[in-house]
Amino acid sequence: MVAPPIAAGAYQELLPAVPDWLNKGDNAWQLTAATLVGLQSMPGLVILYASIVKKKWAVNSAFMALYAFAAVLICWVLLCYRLAFGDKLLPFWGKGAPALGQKFLLRRAAVPASTHYYADGSTVETPMIRPFYPMASLVYFQFTFAAITTILVAGSVLGRMNIKAWMAFVPLWLVFCYTVGAFSLWGGGFLFQWGVIDFSGGYVIHLASGISGFTAAYWVGPRLKSDRERFPPNNVLLMLAGAGLLWMGWSGFNGGAPYAANIDASIAVVNTNICAATSLLVWTSLDVVYFGKPSVIGAVQGMMTGLACITPGAGLVQGWAALVMGIASGTIPWYTMMSLSRKLTILQKIDDTLGVFHTHAVAGTLGGALTGLFAHPSLCSLFLAVPDSKGAFYGSKGGVQFLKQLVGASFIIGWNVVVTSIILLVIRVLMPLRMSEEELRIGDDAAHGEEAYALAGQGQKEKTIHNGGFQMQQYLDGHIP
Length: 481
Prior knowledge:
Keywords: Ammonia transport, Membrane, Transmembrane, Transmembrane helix, Transport. It is found in: Cell membrane. The protein has a single domain, classed as Ammonium transporter AmtB like domains (Ammonium transporter fold), CATH 1.10.3430. It contains 19 helices and six strands. α9 packs antiparallel against α10.
């Protein structure tokens, strides 16, 4: 059948499917990158969380990630996208509004940095830089970042947070924490204009989630003593599958940051994998030296710290610098997790279930600082709005960039500690932050009426060995069973 003709005057604002301004290659890459980042959360972190925890918390942990992915999407298109990337309301916040309708579908989106900022505060407008693609591509790409950040926060409170409190926490944290960091560093806010570098989320994502998760773990309180002392992964192989989705998805995570299939994207992808592999090998080597055996969980932790560390400078540093950053991210977070955490009272008192503080907050801060040292001036000129940006390694003026990186990290840390605390204290007035004692003792069956494994006894071995079901908390505490 032939479709009837469109009446004259109808759909006046409808553009052709492939208008002249659309760069199909860049649009295709942006949608691909967004899909890769989305797969990191759903099913990546859903699988990782469900399998890395004790059997009785598998369903609850997976559901926390699944719920956050869905809730963030709706909040993002209704309000939060424009809080993070809309017109300026405050130096650190945009004007919230829905990102829907005709503009959502057809508005052009271009690489940012069409405005150059100078030391005296003056600006010069330059023509918009191709590529052009629908605003919808950018909205979805940035949603996947917001979703994974929120899910990472959950990693600190697995195994005891009241699921209803988590359901209330997700939209509030997205509105009042995530969008502030995103606008300040990416959406044209004061840190962006000042020249703080965060290529793809070392601060906006990893530092924010690590600090907020650590803060939430303080207010929610620790797991039961029995869970904290014995917390074996219920499925190590599935844990590796989830970790693999994270690693491979990071090519879209960092490769999509330039908003184009360009030189920066290629450099970012290669550097991401160099740093992750180096960090994993260094972390594993340290495990062998100090504990006598390599740990699968340790390898995953090393992979994560490498990915988090390279993120703020992935497309702005050379390959040798990515290698150095991998060595640092496999060493310093290992030290804070395996040694310093047993010496500092605050790190012992606060029960950060998956060590998100170390793998994301420490690694993200480290990556931001190292970007302030190693950011190459030529690569910075391809990506950044502030001219003459460069790391301290490339000249005396680069030292200013290093200091800017530290100031940017301080703002993210301070904001997330204070606002996350306020959000949780408000929720605590309305409902408990922790599960009931019965739910804490029984786990999924009490909290959800469901269990991860239908067969009795499957996945709940009591006696574990290092190379198989290595106990998570004993690993974090540096003890070998």
